[in-house]
Amino acid sequence: LLCPVSNLCGKCRPRDTDLLQPSLNFLYWSLHQTTPCSQQRAVAVLLSNVSLLELLQKVLECTWLWSPTSRPAYLSSEDALLCSGWLLVASLLLYQHRYNTEVHQTLSVDLKEVLNAVIFRNKKPILLLVSIMQFLRAVLRQNFSSSLLVIVGLNTAPSSTQPQPSSLQDTALHPLAMQQVFSLVVSLQNLLVHKDLLLSQAVVACLETLVEYLYVKNQDVALHVASQPWHRFLLFTILSGGQKSFLQPEVLRLMTLFVRYQSNNIISQKEISQIIQEAAEANIAELPEATSCALHLFLSQV
């Protein structure tokens, strides 16, 4: 089915949302719900379909072309299509890198537009934000160097015989700039305050990947970002309400992040002991799988 469905997508226009959205969902599902052997073949089939990739390019561009003021409060068919497009591209980036699959057509994405979508939100629905963050995680994990993707809107260090400290940091973090990093971190913090479960999971995952990327590029910057005092205020804002609020997957993952990067001003021995105490009192067998996994990672990190 992959061949006829992907061929059908390649014959559509972005405005054919009723046909395209379920078709892209089927392609996404096919990538994620199959065996590793079949998955490798599925990636090869999709990446060899030039018309499909050209269609995906147009869908991604519609994210910036379709006016946000025209978006209703609910998830419109256009926004649903954009979500499917970003999620599918993020998956293709992941699996193309994993299997080193041959690429017949590259995709081009403006990095500034992607960052601004998260930083300014601009009336974008939560599910679309989550989808774009999944894409951002994929490119961060690959150090912006995927053979499937061409990144435009890159930052270039200012030419000077004596570069300033800020420009030296920008060069180390290329293609990101320090200002973009801090704007992105603040925006992710603000999104966490919404206490939407899906959004919180995506934001914490994006924050984890961002700090990992920064740590490889410049350890001082990564540790500085991870130890921002605002994180502690954010943590207790999330924890407000609920006796067992420490045993939330997103809270545990945040705590794990702070322990990993030794942010002692954010998480103290007192909070660590409190989490262990709550875990000891809980019925581990009855915890949701996401919570169990997050708790395991936290305890391993401690």
TrEMBL record:
GO biological process: meiosis I
Name the UniProt record assigns to this protein: MEI1 protein
Gene label: Mei1
